[in-house]
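Dear H.,

Thanks for agreeing to be a second pair of eyes. The structure we're designing against is below in token form, covering all 512 positions.
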């Protein structure tokens, strides 16, 4: 399992690295002003629907169902099931796309009502949304093919696909002079990437002999069971996305640049969430589903404990860095072109607020897998909806005194509520068994994380003084040196507290 997590995590890391390059280009060309706000609204809209209907709810319902059907009924029955779901999915997405293109101005009115006071931003957001929204249809097909491949233990193509989004946007932004605005260039990059991703992941499904075809969508027992799982999962994903919608709506009333600060801070925060949390969740879901279908409850529980342990090992240093040196991170990565030092300060404060909820965000995918693997998508919905309600309530409470930082902090509060409830529900149902090794590792990693945060905070000023004469490269050099110092501190403490035998034992258990 660890090898598959590293495969998905490594390819996701490549995606995040190219994503950083993309965001650096975005920051330099679009900056953090009105045009950037319009693009980020246009980009968020299909992403919200994707998270609700595709990557969120669909994966939670489809991957365990496909794995179970293939394990118990064979490849032919699983292919029939996939074909019927493909047909229904394609038809629903075509209808949604038609409605979105027809009523785009109304959608922008709802999503970003603050734009009504700025006709230029509103008009640009409408134009860009009409370009980006077809991306949803394409990425939904990518999600279907990726779910099939994941159930077949083929993770590489789906994990690499998002890299194409970054590369496509970098190329179109580099050619921005040929588009009406840089926002149009970025929007076309999004749409082109959808085509490329569908070709890549669909091609891998075809090579695996699992390519789907149009088939009359008969509501047999397998399809009905899938929809019984999909309904609650969709409601749960919708609850999370409602909180993100609230971010966009509220931030549209804040001064120009608030949406951009949220975007850039979230991009940094998403690095460990995507590389570590989602990678572990992607691997552990089919792993647990197959073990549970085969009656190996103990093996499923052990796999979940090791996934959580490995996730904590890699995410704790990210949390320490985001809390200790957030402004330096934003300056080093983004201050160039239209993105100013003042923008970096706002985004840095926002990043620190997001970091408060980093651990629950990276752990939630591995934790809810114990329900999804059993076909129970309803229980996590309760936690998600309660957390979303708390999240939105805190957004309204904190937006006044803290602006976009309050929105990010509310998101973190909601994440802790969500994880706490999921853990409680799982323990009450007997689906979560935290072993002694995980308890001890958690305490030791907490000590290592606190020591790392203290080291970064204490070393920031001396390191900045050391590179004060480097001008434009001062922040980049400071961040690089602090990363080296932090790596040595954290790695040394982990080796002292846990010992090198820990990884050896971990790998041995996975092979066993």
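And this is the sequence the design step returned. I haven't edited it by hand at all.
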């Amino acid at each position: 399992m660890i090898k598959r997590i590293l495969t998905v995590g490594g390819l996701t890391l490549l995606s995040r690295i190219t994503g950083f390059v993309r965001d650096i280009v975005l920051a330099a060309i679009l900056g953090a002003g009105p045009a950037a706000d319009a693009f980020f609204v246009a980009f968020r809209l299909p992403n919200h629907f994707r998270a609700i209907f595709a990557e969120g709810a669909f994966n939670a319902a489809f991957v365990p169902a496909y794995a179970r059907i293939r394990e118990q009924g064979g490849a032919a029955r699983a292919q029939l099931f996939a074909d019927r779901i493909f047909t229904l999915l394609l038809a629903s997405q075509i209808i949604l796309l038609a409605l979105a293109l027809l009523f785009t101005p109304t959608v922008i009115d709802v999503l970003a009502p603050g734009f009504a006071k700025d006709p230029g931003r509103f008009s640009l957001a409408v134009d860009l949304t009409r370009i980006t929204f077809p991306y949803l249809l394409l990425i939904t097909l990518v999600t279907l093919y990726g779910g099939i491949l994941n159930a077949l233990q083929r993770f590489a193509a789906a994990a690499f696909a998002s890299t194409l989004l970054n590369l496509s946007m970098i190329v179109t932004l580099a050619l921005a002079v040929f588009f009406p605005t840089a926002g149009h260039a970025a929007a076309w990059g999004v749409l082109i990437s959808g085509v490329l991703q569908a070709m890549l992941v669909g091609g891998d499904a075809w090579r695996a002999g699992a390519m789907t075809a149009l088939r009359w969508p008969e509501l047999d027992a397998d399809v009905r069971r899938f929809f019984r799982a999909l309904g609650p999962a969709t409601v749960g994903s919708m609850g999370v996305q409602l909180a993100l919608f609230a971010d966009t709506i509220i931030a549209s009333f804040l001064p120009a640049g608030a949406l951009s600060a949220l975007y850039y801070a979230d991009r940094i925060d998403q690095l460990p969430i995507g590389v570590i949390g989602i990678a572990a969740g992607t691997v552990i879901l089919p792993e647990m589903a197959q073990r549970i279908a085969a009656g190996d409850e103990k093996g499923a529980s052990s796999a979940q404990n090791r996934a959580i342990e490995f996730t904590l090992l890699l995410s704790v240093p990210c949390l320490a860095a985001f809390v200790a040196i957030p402004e330096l991170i934003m300056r080093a990565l983004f201050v160039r072109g239209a993105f100013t030092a003042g923008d970096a300060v706002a985004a840095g404060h926002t990043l620190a607020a997001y970091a408060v909820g980093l651990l629950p965000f990276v752990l939630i995918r591995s934790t809810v897998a114990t329900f999804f693997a059993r076909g129970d998508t309803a229980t996590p919905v309760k936690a998600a909806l309660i957390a979303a309600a708390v999240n939105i309530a805190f957004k309204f409470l904190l937006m006044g005194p803290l602006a976009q930082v309050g929105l990010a902090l509310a998101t973190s509060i909601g994440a802790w509520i969500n994880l706490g409830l999921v853990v409680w529900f799982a323990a009450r149902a007997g689906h979560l068994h935290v072993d002694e090794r995980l308890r001890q590792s958690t305490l030791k990693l907490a000590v290592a994380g606190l020591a790392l945060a203290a080291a970064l905070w204490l070393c920031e000023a001396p390191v900045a003084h050391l590179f004060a004469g480097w001008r434009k490269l001062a922040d980049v050099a400071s961040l690089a040196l602090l990363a080296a110092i932090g790596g040595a501190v954290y790695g040394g403490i982990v080796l002292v507290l846990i010992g090198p035998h820990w990884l050896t034992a971990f790998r041995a258990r996975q092979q066993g």
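Two observations from my side: The CA atoms of residues 471 and 477 lie 10 Å apart. Residues 34-236 form one domain.

Warmly,
E.
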